[in-house]
Amino acid sequence: MTLVRAEGTLALVNLTDQALRVRAVQAATDYDLGALVTVLHAYMTTASRKGARTSQKTLDAYTLAVRDFVPWARDAGMTLLRPGTRDGGRYLAQLQTRASQGQGKAGVLSASTVAQYLAGVRALYRALRWAGATEAQPFQDAHVPPDPTPGIVKNPPYRQEVDAALLHCDPRLAALLLLCAHAGLRITEALNLNMRDIQLGSGQGNRLTVTGKGGKTRIVPLGKRLREAVSVLPPLGEDGRLFDWNYAQATYRMQKAFRAAGHSDAWRGFHAARKHSGTRLYTATKDFTRVGLFLGHSSVDTTRRYVAVEQDDVASEVENF
Q1: Which of 125, 148, 171 marks a domain boundary?
Q2: DSSP classification of residue 218
Q3: Contact call for residues 180 and 192 (beta carbons, < 8 A)
Q4: Residue 90: which domain range?
Q5: What pTM was computed for the model?
Q6: Number of structural domains the chain divides into
Q7: Which residue of 19, 68, 90, 220 lies most exposed, with the fewest beta carbons within 10 A?
Q8: Per-residue exposure over 59-78, b if at least 16 CB sit within 10 Å of its own CB, e if not
Q9: In whole angstroms, what is the distance from residue 69 CA to residue 85 CA?
Q10: Cα–Cα distance for residue pair 259/275, rounded to 1 Å
Q11: Could you tell me the end-to-end alpha-carbon distance of the chain, in angstroms, rounded to an integer?
Q12: 132-176 per-position pLDDT tens digit
């Protein structure tokens, strides 16, 4: 969901340095959420490390953080342009003790959620410095202690749930699940898939071309079951798209299939299906590098967080030490 009009961002970028500074100072002084978000987006899309290639997902996540932080700062008496030395720590502390409001969740916000909010407000202050409004860095020394529980434990891969849910999917929904669980696609990659990205039975083999994070592309081989699933799908329009669902619509349909399969409590989002793919491939290859290339990871360290390895995985190897 786009939260800020693109033309507002462009208009801000085209201001003179002095006009931009005045606009940013006024927005921070008034705790003007809309204007501060526009400053953030202008910075992220023109001056951050990724610039215009910053993903909409990142922009939305940082926008959510700003929309949380600015009202808190106003109510807590924090002056955005001249924060106190302890203000960053105060905001971090209330995040770490805030009750989780996620559906079916209990306890406080997870460490990953807190870190995401912190990343967003740090980006806001980089944006304010870029605009010349302040040199303050109230979150420079704020750190979120890592959660000692590995992500693969908190959100493990699906196991038998995939095959069970497939029995309750229509052909298009089944193809979507297999693209995540067998081809290892991110849900956004799968939903954006186009018929021209898929090559079936040609001299180039059975594979698809995936455009992933940062515009990077990779080639993914298609197994027999997935080939059969996508080969029967007619495109939904002249542009060849296979899906016309957004993330929420796809989630609703998949949750319904999981419930019908008797696994409503097991639904953990599409990422667990991607982990299903990574875990199965690692079990077959015992090679994190190959799994990482398959999943489109730039670092093997990331891949390790996607693979559920049995605790006694090396039992046979150490037997005769």
Answers
A1: 148
A2: E
A3: no
A4: 6-148
A5: 0.71
A6: 2
A7: 19
A8: beebbebbebbbeebeeeeb
A9: 17
A10: 20
A11: 56
A12: 999 999 999 888 887 777 778 888 999 999 999 999 999 999 999
